[in-house]
Amino acid sequence: MLVVTWETDGFNNCVVLDGKPYVYARSEAGEFVLHARCSHRGGPLHLATFCPDSTRLVCPWHSRATSVTKALRAGIPAVRRGDRVTAVFDVPATVTAEVEYRPMSPDLAS
Ligand code: FES
User: Fold this and answer.
1) Average pLDDT of span 81-107
2) Three-class DSSP category at 25
3) I want to staple 26 with a disulfide (CB 3.0 to 4.6 A). Which of 14, 32, 80, 110 is the partner?
4) Nearest atom in ligand 1 to 45's CA
């Protein structure tokens, strides 16, 4: 297990573990840590928008929709305190965590 803390917004709003980016996302159903790469072909889910009923995230590359509820259930354990989030990732503690910037969809950044 690896515990990482990073910023919810701004220049350090994304943590990258073994090349996999994660961001803190907000939805009507709740806030969660989102794997920011689409499972279809790696599209930028940090730029996803919500479908009209806000139940699914739509990838900007090929418009596949992902259930927000499913993302919340399969979520990465995390807690937000102010403008920082601390999450526990199921990876070896030896994995290097890099913090960087990802532009966020207005739908996810609130
Ligand atoms: S990469 Fe996301 S739908 Fe294709």
Assistant:
1) 95
2) strand
3) 110
4) 2
